[in-house]
Specification:
This protein is of the alpha/beta class and 251 residues long. It contains 9 helices and 7 strands.
Length: 251
């Protein structure tokens, strides 16, 4: 049997109702963690928590707008009141609307940055004191492989994901002496529900032949990487950006 590397720990995952967030929550639960799910979609969140519960995993569900400082604080306090600790934070919540640059309004820009980048600061800032007090923590931030190559129509998204990489490096240098590691993962094109059912689905025909690994990326590929970085085994890895894209354009 696989060792339950996160037994006795609590892991908080944002944007956890579906896609990469749900796959990550499921994977961390399989490692023995009690998982707290944050999402703004109350109905989908309840279904996700129920699915984890049906699988025998302990899960907490908090409907939280991760762009709202007070809401994040209340959500974290609710998890701490229930579990007494948060050992792992996975900052996964994000949106990726496409806008030709000349049509990108400042309001659109701010909405993307608030959801994708401000939320990383807010959630990390909320859990950090407890991690520092215990002398242990794992923060894993979900960025994007688009940061390395750019992509038309995604200037706000790519900017937000680049900001996550910079934040990861800076916080890692400050958090390391307190036993807290901070890393980022940059997924390539992954077959989540939103991608498969959206306009990006056609990109698989373009991107997969240009990968070293000639298949679609699946949510479980990202969840597996996050689970390792979230584990005690990754204690000497921090400030890093791990690219998980099947070798797209890098072979």
């Amino acid at each position: 049997m696989r060792e339950a590397r996160l037994a006795g720990q609590t892991a908080l995952v944002t944007g956890a109702a579906r896609g990469l967030g749900y796959a990550t929550a499921e994977r961390l639960a399989a490692e023995g963690a009690r998982v707290a799910l944050f999402d703004s979609d109350e109905e989908a969140l309840a279904a996700a928590a129920g699915s984890l519960g049906d699988g025998g995993s302990a899960a907490l569900a908090e409907t939280v707008d991760v762009t709202d400082e007070e809401a994040v604080g209340r959500g974290v306090e609710a998890v701490l009141a229930e579990t007494g600790r948060i050992d792992v934070l996975v900052n996964n919540a994000g949106i990726y609307p496409h806008f030709p640059f000349e049509e990108l309004t400042f309001a659109d820009w701010r909405r993307v940055l608030a959801t994708n980048l401000d939320s990383v600061y807010l959630c990390s800032h909320a859990v950090y004191p407890g991690m520092r007090e215990r002398g242990y923590g794992r923060i894993v931030n979900v960025s994007s492989a688009t940061f390395f190559i750019g992509y038309p129509g995604l200037s706000a998204y790519v900017a937000s994901k680049g900001g996550i990489v910079g934040f990861t490096r800076a916080l890692a240098s400050e958090a390391g002496p307190h036993g807290i590691t901070v890393n980022a993962v940059t997924p390539g094109l992954i077959a989540t529900e939103g991608v498969v059912g959206g306009e990006e689905a056609g990109l698989f025909d373009e991107i997969v032949p240009d990968q070293a690994v000639g298949r679609r990326g699946e949510p479980e590929d990202i969840a597996e990487t996050i689970a390792y970085l979230a584990s005690p085994a990754a204690s000497f890895i921090t400030g890093q950006t791990v690219n998980v894209d099947g070798g797209h354009r890098y072979h």
